[in-house]
């Protein structure tokens, strides 16, 4: 294996493939690592879309993490059912999703639910639904700080939304949300870009406070910016998600000390030619959403040429001279995008510190 961690599973013969495997000790180590990077967990609001698992959420809570971010009502329900009391759905509720969020607030009256929003009519509808259900939901304005995916423009338009939210029954104005998925590169240029980007939200916070509205939170960043925006005055929390399992997409781009904690176990199902192997990990087995290379294979040498990729097949050409594995051999794959990989599975095979599969965790919040 080409990693300094030995990912070999002793009883892998008992695991049907393709399978998602999670290394419990490495998850625990990543939780410690992020606590070290952020001087504790007070300012961390991890996004749980990467793992979607009650068992992992519990590990995060046991370590002292008290607030969470998620994308879907299903993830929010998982968090509330497992004892989280501060749950932010970083996704604007529209249509019937509004009712689902309000239902959650009704069912879990001990939990503070927060959502993000950038659209006045949708925010008004949320307010009406909250009033009808006699619940209160926190709203953070999603500020577009450069990604151009969602969000209100910083400055005056966001101030106007703050005034609106502050005036509506059933809602509390909780502050601003700024996700920086557009930040590229690594090192100082990456950090500078992330800081410049979040500064737009921090300046907006000041403008909102200047009109007399309290703006308690600025929740910022994913993995591409959290270390930088954590240092910015006026940012109250950072919200990366992928750090929990890590993947090669980020691992090859960003120099963070996280380790891969979730792999896909695959097997060779055919060897159509001397230099060709077909694995049982197609786009229904590992990150359907990324270009080549779709993964790194820990126990295959040389550069892999990714050929046909179907739902359950991945044809690969090996480099000349590389010993071809046999049909049935296990190949350990590190996903390029672990979040979309996890979502393909109902459960994860959990590997203990001795390298044995000993338990299975449900991926409770897969889907929507
Ligand atoms: C709104 C939001 N916040 C936080 C994250 C977490 O980011 P990352 O996966 O880069 O850690 C994401 C990722 O998609 C996101 O969309």
Number of domains: 2
The CATH homologous superfamily of the largest domain is named Alanine racemase
Q: How many E-type strands?
A: 16
**Helix amount:** 25-40%
What ranges have pLDDT less than 50 throughout 5 or more consecutive residues?
Answer: none
Structural class: alpha/beta
Q: What's the story with the biggest beta sheet?
A: 9 strands, mixed
CATH class of the largest domain: Alpha Beta
Key structural traits:
7-stranded parallel beta sheet, 10 helices, 23% strand, 16 strands, binds pyridoxal-5'-phosphate, single chain, Lyase, Ornithine Decarboxylase, Chain A, domain 1, 368 residues, TIM Barrel, 2 domains, alpha/beta
Could you give a short description of this structure?
The protein has 10 helices and 16 strands. It is an alpha/beta fold and 368 residues long. The model has no long low-confidence stretch (mean pLDDT 97).
Write the layout of secondary structure elements.
Blueprint: E1 19-23, H1 24-37, H2 54-62, E2 68-70, H3 73-81, E3 86-89, H4 96-107, E4 112-117, H5 120-133, E5 137-142, H6 156-167, E6 171-178, H7 187-210, E7 217-220, H8 226-229, E8 237-238, H9 248-251, E9 262-273, E10 276-279, E11 295-297, E12 305-309, E13 314-317, E14 330-335, H10 338-342, E15 347-351, E16 357-362
Parallel strand pairs: 1-15, 2-3, 3-4, 4-5, 5-6, 6-7, 7-8
Antiparallel strand pairs: 1-9, 9-10, 9-14, 10-13, 11-14, 12-13, 15-16
Helix pairs in contact: 3-4, 4-5, 6-7
The chain binds pyridoxal-5'-phosphate (PLP).
Describe this structure in words.
With 368 residues, this protein is α/β, with parallel strands linked by helices. It has two domains: 12-19 and 257-362, Lyase, Ornithine Decarboxylase, Chain A, domain 1; 24-246, TIM Barrel, CATH 3.20.20. 29% of the residues lie in helices and 23% in strands. The protein has ten helices and 16 strands. It has helices at 24-37, 54-62, 73-81, 96-107, 120-133, 156-167, 187-210, 226-229, 248-251, 338-342, and strands at 19-23, 68-70, 86-89, 112-117, 137-142, 171-178, 217-220, 237-238, 262-273, 276-279, 295-297, 305-309, 314-317, 330-335, 347-351, 357-362. The strands form two sheets. Strands 1, 9, 10, 11, 12, 13, 14, 15 and 16 form a nine-stranded mixed beta sheet that branches. The protein has a seven-stranded parallel beta sheet with strand order 2-3-4-5-6-7-8. Helix 7 (187-210) links the parallel strand 6 and strand 7. 46% of the residues are buried. The structure holds pyridoxal-5'-phosphate.
């Amino acid at each position: 294996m080409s990693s300094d961690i030995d990912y070999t599973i002793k009883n892998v013969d008992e695991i049907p493939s393709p399978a998602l495997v999670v290394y419990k000790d490495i998850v625990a180590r990543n939780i410690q690592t992020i606590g070290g990077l952020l001087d504790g967990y007070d300012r961390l609001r991890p996004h749980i879309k990467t793992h979607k698992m009650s068992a992992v959420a519990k590990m995060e809570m046991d370590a002292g993490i008290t607030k969470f971010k998620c994308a879907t009502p299903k993830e929010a329900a998982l968090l509330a059912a497992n004892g989280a009391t501060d749950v932010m759905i970083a996704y604007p509720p529209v249509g019937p999703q509004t009712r689902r969020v309000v239902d959650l607030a009704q069912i879990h009256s001990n939990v503070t639910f927060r959502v993000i929003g950038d659209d006045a009519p949708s925010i008004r509808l949320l307010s009406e639904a909250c009033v009808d259900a006699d619940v209160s939901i926190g709203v953070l304005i999603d500020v577009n700080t450069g990604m151009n995916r969602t969000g209100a423009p910083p400055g005056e338009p966001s101030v106007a939304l703050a005034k609106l939210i502050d005036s509506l029954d059933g809602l509390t104005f909780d502050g601003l949300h700024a996700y920086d998925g557009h930040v590229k590169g690594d090192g100082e240029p990456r950090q500078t870009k992330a800081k410049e980007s979040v500064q737009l939200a921090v300046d907006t916070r000041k403008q909102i406070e200047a009109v007399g509205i309290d703006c308690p939170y600025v929740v910022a960043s994913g993995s591409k910016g959290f270390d930088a925006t954590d240092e910015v005055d006026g940012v109250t929390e950072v919200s990366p998600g992928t750090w929990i399992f890590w993947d090669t997409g980020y691992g090859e781009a960003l120099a963070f000390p996280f380790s891969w904690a979730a792999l896909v176990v695959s097997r060779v199902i055919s060897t159509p030619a001397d230099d060709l192997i077909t694995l049982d990990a197609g786009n229904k087995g590992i990150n359907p959403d990324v270009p080549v290379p779709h993964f790194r294979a820990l126990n295959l040498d040389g550069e892999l040429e990714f050929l046909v990729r179907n739902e359950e097949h991945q044809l690969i050409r090996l480099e000349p001279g590389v010993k071809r594995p046999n049909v049935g051999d296990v190949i350990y794959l590190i996903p390029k995008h672990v979040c979309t990989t996890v979502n393909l599975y109902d459960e994860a095979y959990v590997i203990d510190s001795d390298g044995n599969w000993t338990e299975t965790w449900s991926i409770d919040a897969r889907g929507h």
